[in-house]
Amino acid sequence: MITKEWNGANNQRFKVHDEWVLDTTTGLYWRKHLLSKAQKTWYDAIKEVKSYEARLPEIQEFISLIDYSQCCPALPKDHPFVNVRSSYYWSATTTAPYTTHAWGISMYYGYVYDYYKLDRYHVWPVKDKV
Q: Residue 95: left if φ>0, alpha if ψ -120 to 50, beta else—which one?
């Protein structure tokens, strides 16, 4: 496993581990290279992340990654992620009281929305360990 500090603007928050990036603030590993341009339903997104031995992030985990002083994408300056779209991403969190909807996040500004699970949005796998 290749491990290196991410030194963008002296940013020690991220450590790159091959295809995964450790967020030292939360201890979560986010996929460095985001998945294909093809958008998925929530159900297909759940299946796809399992192929990476990963999961969809809970909405609070996604929010922890957002930097609201940035946009397009709303991620910390000099982040190490590749192919982040300024678009919508699924979370694993189902909304209450509508189980037909799940929370998602816009990487444009970092806004949180509820989406119908049969709509199609992007997928960003996360792991608790690599």
A: beta
Which of 45, 56, 38, 51 shows the shortest CA–CA distance to 92? Answer: 56
Question: pLDDT (tens digit, 9 = 90+) per residue, 40-94?
Answer: 999 999 999 998 999 999 999 999 999 999 989 999 988 999 888 888 999 999 9
C-alpha dihedral (89, 90, 92, 95), degrees to nearest 10: 120
What is the number of domains present in the chain? 1
- Alpha helix ranges (H) inside 8-129: 42-50, 59-65
Model's pTM, two decimal places? Answer: 0.85
- How many of the other CB atoms lie within 10 Å of CB of 32? 18
85, 95 contact by CB (below 8 A): no
Range of the domain at 107: 3-127
CATH of the domain at 68: 3.10.100.10
